């Protein structure tokens, strides 16, 4: 029973990895072509959050729990970027 579940999870992750890679390519294109700052920020946010989820999947696939804290730190870093960009768009000033 446990072996079947392990095989199914491995197959699911193997199938999902190309979908993540396709999404990464689309986000990078939008980040490079985005006509406005919110478009670029949204593309970077999506790319980063998907990368954090991808790291979590890789952690399960490779049975390496060290990737989970990396994913959490990445997600928190992107959240800080969102706050910084929102502050810039609101007040049009850079700073703390």
Structure, described:
By secondary structure, this protein is an all-alpha fold. 86% of the residues lie in helices and 0% in strands. The chain is built from 3 helices and no strands. The protein has helices at 2-33, 37-62, 67-91. Helix 1 runs antiparallel to helix 2 (37-62) and helix 2 packs antiparallel against helix 3. The longest helix is centred in the N-terminal third of the chain and has 32 residues, at 2-33. It is elongated and about 55 Å long.
| Tally of helical runs | 3
Q: Main beta sheet: strand number and arrangement?
A: none
For the termini, the CA-CA separation is 54 Å
**What level of helicity do the residues show?**
over 70%
What fraction strand?
under 5%
The low-confidence runs, each spanning 5 or more residues with pLDDT under 50, are: none
Number of strands: 0
In sequence order, what are the helices and strands, one letter per element? HHH
Q: So what's the oligomer here?
A: single chain
């Amino acid at each position: 029973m446990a072996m079947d579940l392990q095989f199914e999870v491995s197959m699911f992750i193997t199938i999902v990895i190309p979908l993540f890679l396709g999404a990464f390519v689309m986000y990078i294109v939008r980040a490079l072509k985005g006509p406005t700052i919110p478009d670029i920020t949204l593309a970077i946010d999506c790319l980063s959050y998907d990368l954090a989820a991808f790291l979590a999947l890789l952690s399960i696939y490779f049975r390496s729990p060290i990737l989970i804290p990396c994913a959490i730190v990445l997600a928190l870093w992107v959240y800080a970027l969102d706050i910084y960009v929102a502050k810039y768009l609101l007040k049009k000033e850079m700073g703390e």
